[in-house]
User: Which sequence fits this backbone?
């Protein structure tokens, strides 16, 4: 037996439930002072949306112990979800939007059907009006009564559609606001406020996405940055950090990722890039920064030139991002120990870091 299509009422109920669940997730995360990134959203969606599920039990342990944290929720999300958790989170949001669109389409179809019904009723009324007025007869009277009743029902249905349409538009505004809020939270948690580059959280996410692929990681540090702050003040230092970040972005490809690790340290992910090509990029970065002459923005006081030390490490997909970061960091310190303003790539057992 063929199942009946879901009614507009049932679809509306499902959409409202999805919106309420999303709202509960946002409120629960904010109430626990947690950053609502996609993995946290996925863990809370399982916890609040499927209380009897395995993931819900794991999250409940953290809740009852009073030790909710982004790290703990990330670990749960990784265990219960495939690597494309971000895509699944977006799919949840898109599903609600698609449901609203489907309801709107159904409502438009229903309104079109009402228009056709009204045209049919109009033709019946014209036929009744053409009957001789002296001999209306019982059949004509009954038809007129039926037409009148049908017009009343059509009017009631149109009023209901208008009311439902207003409610639907309000729900669409709510889901749009929710999407903007989630996107703003995601942006706040992955971007550096000073430079607009990725922050450490954003870098880690992109490093994880490179697992199993060949790429090169560059670690970059502004040389003698403390003396710049001491001589010219922290606002001038912030200006140099912003300028260096902009130069890094300019020196790499659109598909590469640039991050500010914190302080005066940066990182660059070069996907599908070997040491030879990465060395060219690193040399371009070093030369571009060294050629720049900095001045205080408001006073024009010359600051002079600054240099950067760069360490690089290449991976063939067999090592993870954490290992590559450690290697690039070792290469960076080798550049500093070698006199700064230079590029060094990691080589196994190349340096005795303890000496």
Assistant:
């Amino acid at each position: 037996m063929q199942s009946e299509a879901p009614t507009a009422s049932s679809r509306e109920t499902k959409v409202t439930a999805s919106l309420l669940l999303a709202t509960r997730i946002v409120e629960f995360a904010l109430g626990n002072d947690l950053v609502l990134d996609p993995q946290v959203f996925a863990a809370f969606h399982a916890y609040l949306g499927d209380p009897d599920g395995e993931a819900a039990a794991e999250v409940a342990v953290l809740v009852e112990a009073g030790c909710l944290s982004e790290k703990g929720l990330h670990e749960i999300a990784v265990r219960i979800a495939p690597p494309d958790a971000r895509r699944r989170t977006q799919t949840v949001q898109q599903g609600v939007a698609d449901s609203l669109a489907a309801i709107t389409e159904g409502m438009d179809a229903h309104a079109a059907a009402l228009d056709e019904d009204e045209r049919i009723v109009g033709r019946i009324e014209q036929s009744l009006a053409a009957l001789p007025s002296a001999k209306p007869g019982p059949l004509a009277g009954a038809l007129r009564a039926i037409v009148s009743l049908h017009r009343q029902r059509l009017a009631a249905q149109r009023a209901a559609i208008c009311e439902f349409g207003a409610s639907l538009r309000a729900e669409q505004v709510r889901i749009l606001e929710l999407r903007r809020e989630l996107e703003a939270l995601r942006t706040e948690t992955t971007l550096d406020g000073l430079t607009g580059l990725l922050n450490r959280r954003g870098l880690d996410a992109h490093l994880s996405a490179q697992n199993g692929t060949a790429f090169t990681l560059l670690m970059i540090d502004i040389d003698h940055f403390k003396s710049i702050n001491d001589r010219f003040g922290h606002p001038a230092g912030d200006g140099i950090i912003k300028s260096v970040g902009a130069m890094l972005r300019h020196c790499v490809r659109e598909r590469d990722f640039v991050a500010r690790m914190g302080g005066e340290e940066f990182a660059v992910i070069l996907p599908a890039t070997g040491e030879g090509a990465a060395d060219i990029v690193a040399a371009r970065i070093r030369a571009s920064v060294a050629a720049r002459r900095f001045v205080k923005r408001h006073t024009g006081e010359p600051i002079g030139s600054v240099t950067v030390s760069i360490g690089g490490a290449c991976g063939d997909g067999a090592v993870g991002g954490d290992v590559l970061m450690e290697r690039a960091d070792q290469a960076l310190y080798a550049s500093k120990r070698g006199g700064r303003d230079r590029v060094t790539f990691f080589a196994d057992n190349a340096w005795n870091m303890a000496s």
Observations:
- The chain has two domains: 1-190, 200-345.
- Residues 22 and 243 are 40 Å apart (CA to CA).
- Residues 200-345 form a domain with the Alpha-Beta Plaits fold (CATH 3.30.70.270).
- The longest strand covers residues 215-222.
